[in-house]
Amino acid sequence: MAVIVYLSCLLALLVAGLPQGIKGSLRNQDPGPQPLELKQVFTLFQIQYNRSYSNPEEYARRLDIFARNLAHAQQLEAEDLGTAKFGVTPFSDLTEEEFGQLYGHQRMAGEAPRMGRKVGSEESGESVPSSCDWRRLKGIISPIRQQENCNCCWAMATAGNIEALWGIKYNQVVQVSVQELLDCGRCGDGCRGGFVWDAFITVLNNSGLASERDYPFRGDVKPHKCLAKKYDKVAWIQDFIMLQDNEKTIAWYLATEGPITVTINMKLLQQYQNGVIKATSATCDPRLVDHSVLLVGFGTSKSVAGRRAEGGASQPHPRHPMPYWILKNSWGAEWGEEGYFRLHRGSNACGITKYPLTARVDRPLRKRPVSCPP
């Protein structure tokens, strides 16, 4: 861990001195030798994230992609209206298309089930607290998962939702099987993608979920036989609901009931390092959602100073406190803020209000035996 932290700090220091070199190399589009500093940064990236390439041509291609991504990260940081920092991440050697294919939803033909949206806090008469973070209550939020090359963010978000709600309602720590959702899904897509509502319907069809320990995550792209009947269940749901597309409603439900799954546009997450992302509809289209995560809390940042653009000109970033959402991702703890990230709250950042879905957990009902009188 100490080595990783050291490499991360060294990467940050080297990247800080790169702007002119990167922009110059990209502007000239010179296929010849890259700046020495860039190659040093790329070498550290390879060491930190265990990257190797099959031949010199592939190395050169990935180095060029890496340089372009760093330049793009600098642009994102200049454009973002929040406090987010963008730079080197585990995905810095991937093109935007490769990143989308590996980590976004692949099966886009599915449609959300026709269902009414849950009434909100305005009708309940309850106020929304100023902050909420379910991570602070022990045993509610399971450890950060790593989906690797399996398009299963939807299954991992669903599992996190059920685990959290089960812990809140029954004061019992559970970790449910993501692999069961992949192997036994009603659409049979496994690692090729899916949606949260597919996962909830699978849980209902299978009458619960087995534990992660009994039915562990394998995550490869090969289809596996469904083993749902082989293992005992550890958590059940009675149904699932979609909340209103209103951030106050979502915050109220999150604070009073527990974590919620949301599906967002993940475009900015490839280069994200930390801070609050405050995107515009132009930089992160809220209609094009392609990545499911777990909403675990919200809060408000302290006052932040405005950034300075290249050349010393002040950027019009806010200096006042900034409301944000806290979201749990499924890309490992090395990414983002130890596996989490924050989005601005109040602007439908990256489409966070499009599909706010959550299960309602409950133990299975035991039917009273009935006998006909003779």
Name some characteristics of this structure:
alpha+beta, Cathepsin B, Chain A, 2 domains, six-stranded mixed beta sheet, three-stranded mixed beta sheet, cysteine-type peptidase activity, glycoprotein, zymogen
Question: Can you put this structure into words, describing what you see?
Answer:
The protein has 374 residues and is α+β, with helices and mostly antiparallel strands. It folds into two domains: 81 residues, no CATH class; 261 residues, Cathepsin B, Chain A. 32% of the residues lie in helices and 14% in strands. The chain contains ten helices and 13 strands. Strands 3, 7, 9, 10, 11 and 12 form a six-stranded mixed beta sheet that branches. Helix 1 runs antiparallel to helix 3 and helix 2 crosses helix 4. The longest helix is centred in the first third of the chain and has 24 residues. It is globular. The chain starts with a helix and ends in a 13-residue tail after the last strand. About 5% of the residues have low confidence. May have a specific function in the mechanism or regulation of T-cell cytolytic activity. This is Cathepsin W. GO terms for molecular function: cysteine-type peptidase activity. Pfam families: Inhibitor_I29 (PF08246), Peptidase_C1 (PF00112). Belongs to the peptidase C1 family.
